[in-house]
User: Fold this.
Amino acid sequence: MKELKHYILVYFFLLKLTWRASKRLVLVLLGTGLSQVFRLLINVLIPKLLIDGLAAGLGFKDFILWGAFLLFSNVVLARVPAFALAYVQSSFTEVSDHFSYFMAEQVMAIDFAYMEDKKYIGLKEQADFMLTFMRPHINMLKASIDFMKAAGIVVSVLAIALSFSLPLLLILVLLLVIQIWQGKKSVQAVQSYVQALKSFNAKIIALVRFAFHPEKQMDGRIFCRKSFFADRYYDVTVETLAAKKAVDHRRGLSLSIIAALNILGQALCYAYTGIRTVSDLLGPQITLGSFAMYVSALTQFNANFVELSLSLMSLSHAVTTAEPIYEFMHLPLRREKLEELTGGSIEAVNRKEDSVSRRSMQGQMEFLELPEQIEELSFEHVYFKYPTSQDYVLKDFSVSFKRGQKISIVGLNGAGKTTVVKLLMKLYTPLAGKIKLNGIDIRNFDTTEYQAKMSVIFQDYKLFNLSVAENIACVKNYDAKRVSAELAEVGLTEAVAKLKYGVDSVLGKDFSEDGVQLSGGERQKIAIARALYKNAEVVILDEPTSALDPKSEAEIYENFHQLTKNKTAIFISHRLSSSLFCDKILLLRDGRVEDFDTHEKLMEKKDSLYYKMFTTQQENYLYD
Assistant:
């Protein structure tokens, strides 16, 4: 029962998304089912009236009229499923595009934490695979047409058959129950195959990524034999085909049994109604018109019950393949919840969150209006660990950044520098403690509006397969003057001018054969120009200049110092160029604040980690 309820939920989930994608399509499906029920009733009742009417002296004119109505309705209604299917097929692309859009909506809406967790990345890839290759939404539409038609006919005929012979109907139902049982066996085989597909899909995606990823091409060519990936791809394909063959064998056996029982049921119908027509041995004798009606009704009942079973099998298959999509689309938007920290060396803090913050975490309150200006950003006793990790990245982390300050965050690898930025950007939520804007917990602000106040360039930033200008502005209708100004600020005016289409040149070859490939340094400068174009109050650079030489990096930071004169700026770099231009340096060690002071003050501490890091680098890079 629980499994059936889940299937129904997934089915209506697919139907709901299809309704969002194309309301007309759903109405066409419903109309198709109703038209075929109407056609059946016409074909069952009108012949009875004609045959019995002839025996009773029906006039020639009435006979012609009823005959013409029967012929016309069949000609018209018989074409409805074909037209409906043609419309459905023509709508496949539109519906599929909408489903892909709905998936993209969910990716952008859910917590960023999902997209850094292998478990949920795998779930999304499975959903993408099923959506692209198994097309459960399309199979659901096709099966729904058959199901609605068969279900309507079965219900209509059932009412007629009950008035004729209950024992015969019970025998037919018994045969049909056996057919359903066989259909269930087939469905179970399909379900097992779909579960196996998830594993096959993961293997194929991993192989394709490794074999075709541009960043892995050199290693693949140098170290791997030509057939290295082909052999493994072939092995997975053979494994997949073997599983598919077993499913086809099981379905073939079930369909053979179902077909045999269907023939047996039809034979019983003809024999029973024939005897009732010529004698009263099995019940009251019936007319020839009734013979035609009951034979038609009973055989239609049997055939459409079989079709109903087959369409249910197809729907079950569609639902099963849609489960990864359903699961991904129903992920809670907020993954992380407040945890009570107890024991060990970590103090239990913020156990009693105020009701406003709790409601904010649960998404049950209206967000507060953001202040016009960010005067202060502060961390108060923040604890945080990633969902897939047991170790805390930040422990009792407290610091405050004032408006207009230039802050450099430094520390050894793994100290928590990037984590500070992710928390500040509301990509993650602290497990304990608070992050405040002007003294207000940032959880009380709408995330989109809050993030609009900030601009960040991560170390693993990504550019899009769009034009240079669109990469900088991130809007279609951009301000050309501002784009040119930001290119000048990062020193790319000349380089972009040399491109074939200037700022309209597309990056990468995915969307355009004329797409350009920029150097690592040029790509980073475009990412920086994008951050400047946003014109946010807070600008964060998380090691975006790692591909630049020390001199170019120092120039970038010096320019940023001037460009962000009236803004709050946070710099993270494994090289300490930014320290020379910043008001304060935040030194992290093992997720805690070890020091927070000016460069001059920190350099006075000869035994400090900062002094050792800076002097070591100074030996390699000459700083003035």
The longest strand covers residues 376-384. The two ends are 75 Å apart (CA to CA).
